[in-house]
Design a protein that fits this description.
The complex is a heterodimer of chains A (236) and B (395). With 236 residues, chain A is mainly α. In chain A, 83% of the residues lie in helices and 0% in strands. In chain A, helix 1 packs antiparallel against helix 3, helix 4 packs antiparallel against helix 5 and helix 6 crosses helix 7. The longest helix of chain A is centred in the N-terminal third of the chain and has 53 residues. The radius of gyration of chain A is 30 Å and the shape is elongated. Chain B is α/β, with parallel strands linked by helices. Helix content of chain B is 51%, strand content 11%. Chain B contains 18 helices and eight strands. In chain B, a hairpin with a 2-residue loop joins strand 2 and strand 3. The radius of gyration of chain B is 21 Å and the shape is globular. Classes of the chains: A mainly alpha (236), B alpha/beta (395). The interface between A and B is large, with 28 and 46 residues.
């Protein structure tokens, strides 16, 4: 009885040892890959920082209003991009390392995640461009509206910003594969709903108001063109 | 010989140039005047000499320089100044005149422009026009005080349409490195004036009668600010080494009879003030990148008062313009957006000017304009300190 137990125990140990021995080269390769990816991540981060500094990206983005003003407690766009690039390279290295392990479950997971990486990167890029563009758009709309003498300039700027942000988020989510067709449908319903609501509101509730407003506006423009009213000023 | 540049568009340019040619031949027959019309072509401007006795065909498919050129601020290859000076110097001209269109016929304006150069030994003669009091307020409230502060010479209308240049000054300008180093910026009115005032040229100004008011609606305020101040601030940036040396103010010799054009109802001050107050409220996030907190606070206090209380104080206005010029230098905000965002602040200052125009007589109004220019001069040290240490006040 004791001998049988001992044999089974030893056989079990042998199997574990064999499995470990089979796994060890894979783990070693994975470790090397992770180390290599860490080095590549450092290089990528360094390159992004150097290119960002050479092209003066942070200042340019701030100049266009695409990035918030520089603060000591905030990461600048270049540093943020460098960090994202570094961690992306490390994550890809880790996933490639996982895929070389002789384990069907981890390999399948790693391959699926590796397939997902390009979509995720495009999604992040769309989101980043959307966020930067929305800030620039807000500033541009704000200045334009103020100079046109509109009363709700800030609201218009904010509206334009959020419109672009929501659009970018919807596109990014599609690339992330989150929500699927539900998100597209929700987005279409939301925008269609806003336009329909505005049309109904104008058509039923504010037709006279809009007519009066347009009348007043055209009248003002005509008055502005009349000499002596002050708006025929040549400023230069 | 006199080389004259007619500007305009198509047939209008030709008609203008022919008229100038006729007048010059009548007035200065002994000087063998030559008139050319500038025709735009891809990558530059070409000069077409006017034939007094025959047709002058413009090159096909090349419209003459756009009307904006005659508003005084076209730099780079589209500027007719460089080709005119080259032509004038090549033909041994004594005077080169940049002229746009005929003026007040009651004044011998061509002689007014040419004589100080021919007989007075001046290098550059700038025109000054009689205008309605609140016309050209960007010139009155920003451009003229700024040039006066920077170079110590008080030109009333530095970005005029016309100019007469002596042959030696033309040669000096042609030898300037800017044509090669900064081809897109050389040749504008702001460049010409900065070169003249910063280079110790002898400058005079002449009154050329009533301002020839252009037909059609005025240019959009934002566009005007971008076009004119972009060039002026750009020249400030490039001439910083020259204007930072404090210079004693010198009077600019002035010829002719000046004053304001009668009539011209000033704009409604309260409406302009309201636009300023609204702009201050809405553009605060952008202005806080440009103006120091003390200036913003002062602007907010001003906005809380009615315009009748005096509008924007001159010192505050001067400092604000200097802050915008520093923001233009440091590119804290994209340059076109920065200059467009100045519009409500300018309207605030214009509200005070409009109130003064409605309140004072000509002498009182002139004193008001002079006070603004003096405030700019007083604040020059502030400009220099901000220019040298632009990050001191930045958030």
């Amino acid at each position: 009885m004791w001998d049988q137990t001992k044999t089974m125990f030893l056989e079990g140990l042998e199997r574990v040892a064999l499995a470990l021995a089979r796994l060890l080269p894979g783990l070693l390769v994975m470790l090397v890959l992770v180390l290599l990816s860490a080095a590549a991540a450092f290089l990528a981060s360094f390159l992004v920082r150097r290119i960002g500094a050479r092209l003066d990206v942070d200042r340019r983005l701030r100049e266009w209003g695409m990035a918030p003003p520089a603060r000591t407690d905030h990461l600048g766009p270049t540093r943020l991009t460098a960090r994202v690039a570094a961690w992306t390279v490390v994550a890809i290295g880790f996933l490639v390392g996982l895929s070389v392990l002789e384990s069907s479950a981890t390999s399948a997971l790693a391959l699926r995640l590796l397939d997902y990486v390009p979509h995720a990167l495009v999604g992040v890029l769309i989101l980043a461009v959307g966020m930067a563009g929305s800030r620039a758009l807000e500033r541009s709309v704000l200045i334009g509206s103020v100079n046109m003498g509109l009363h709700s300039a800030r609201l218009l700027g904010l509206g334009a910003r959020w419109l672009l942000l929501v659009l970018a988020a919807a596109m990014a989510f599609e690339h992330f594969g989150i929500g699927g067709s539900i998100l597209t449908a929700a987005f279409s319903i939301l925008f269609g709903g806003i336009v329909l609501a505005l049309s109904l509101a104008v058509g039923f509730g504010a037709r006279d108001l809009v007519a009066r407003s347009l009348e007043r506006r055209f009248q003002e423009q005509a008055e502005k063109r009349e000499p002596g009213n002050g708006d025929d000023l040549h400023h230069l | 010989m006199v080389a004259v540049q007619g500007q305009g568009q198509g047939e209008q340019a030709l008609a203008t140039a022919r008229l100038l040619d006729e007048r010059l031949r009548l007035r200065f027959a002994s000087l063998e005047p030559m008139v050319t019309v500038s025709a735009g072509r891809a990558g530059g401007v070409t000069l077409v000499p006017i034939e007094p006795d025959g047709p002058t065909p413009l090159p096909r498919g090349s419209p003459a320089v756009t009307p904006a050129a005659s508003q005084g601020a076209v730099p780079g290859p589209a500027s007719p100044l460089g080709p005119l000076l080259r032509e004038g110097v090549a033909r041994g001209a004594a005077v080169a005149i940049v002229a746009a269109e005929p003026h007040d016929e009651s004044i011998d304006w061509l002689a007014q422009l040419v004589t100080p150069v021919l007989t007075g030994g001046f290098d550059l003669v700038c025109p000054t026009y009689r205008r309605h009091r609140t016309d050209g307020a960007i010139t009155t409230g920003i451009v003229a005080p700024l040039f006066r502060t920077l170079y110590g010479q008080a030109l009333r209308q530095p970005l005029g349409t016309e100019a007469a240049l002596s042959a030696p000054f033309a040669r000096r300008l042609l030898a300037d490195e800017d044509w090669r180093r900064r081809p897109t910026e050389a040749g504008s009115d702001a460049w010409l004036i900065a070169k003249a005032l910063g280079g110790e040229a002898r400058v005079a100004q002449v009154w050329l009668g009533a301002w020839p008011r252009p037909d059609g609606a005025p240019e959009d305020l934002g566009d005007t600010l971008v076009r004119a101040l972009g060039l002026v601030f750009g020249e400030m940036e490039r001439g910083a080494a020259v204007w930072q040396r404090l210079r004693p103010a010198r009077a600019v010799p002035s010829f002719g009879t000046g004053g304001f054009e009668p009539g011209g109802e000033p704009p409604e001050a309260s409406r302009l003030w309201e636009a300023f107050s609204r702009g201050l409220r809405d553009l605060l996030p952008i202005w806080s990148l440009v103006l120091p907190p003390a200036t913003l606070l002062a602007l907010q206090r001003c906005a809380a008062r009615p315009v009748e209380a005096g509008g924007l104080p001159d010192e505050l206005w001067a400092r604000s313009i200097f802050d915008f010029s520093v923001a233009h230098l440091t590119r804290r905000v994209e340059r076109r957006q920065l200059l467009r965002s100045l519009a409500p602040l300018y309207l605030g200052w214009l509200a005070g000017l409009a109130h003064a125009a409605a309140t004072f007589d000509d002498a009182g109004f002139e004193a008001r304009v002079e006070a603004t220019a003096v405030a700019f001069e007083r604040e020059k040290r502030y400009l220099i300190s901000r220019w040298r240490w632009p990050d001191e006040f930045n958030p």
